[in-house]
Give the backbone structure.
Amino acid sequence: MTTFLSRKALFAITGAALLVLLVVVGRSSYVQAALKEGQKFDDWVVACEKDAKKKQVCFLSQVLSSAEDPKQKVAEFRIARFDGKDIKMIQILPFGVNLQSGTSIISGKDLLSPGKFTTCQPFGCIAVADLTQGDLENIMTNETNAVGVIGADGKQTNIILSNKGLKEGLEALK
């Protein structure tokens, strides 16, 4: 009779230990994900959103504000790895840009990947540019980077793109 009770007790203790282990492991990955959200890397911040498939996608974000009114957002650049490999820059730009001309990522004197506008929403127009590893390295090593757009007036405007913290931020997203 005592061996039966000890087996029951051993089974209960083992089950409880496994349950505790599952909770600890599950919570540690949740805590780690929570630490990434909002983490700053100089001019870049980690942000996360759920995609159409309800999967959490984290990206680096850089928000540029108006010099006259710091509360007014002028543009936002987001860099993320999609499907674990493709690197894209999502550019959220103000209204009044020429959609047909798209955007250009400019690094130093080099024109990198073009951006194609996909849609305009109440918060601005969205363009997406595919980035290669070489494009990223170019952006990270050049001091002057920008996203160029053509305004409704036909003149090009270059919106500054900072590379401060980009390398470290991309490493954190891996």
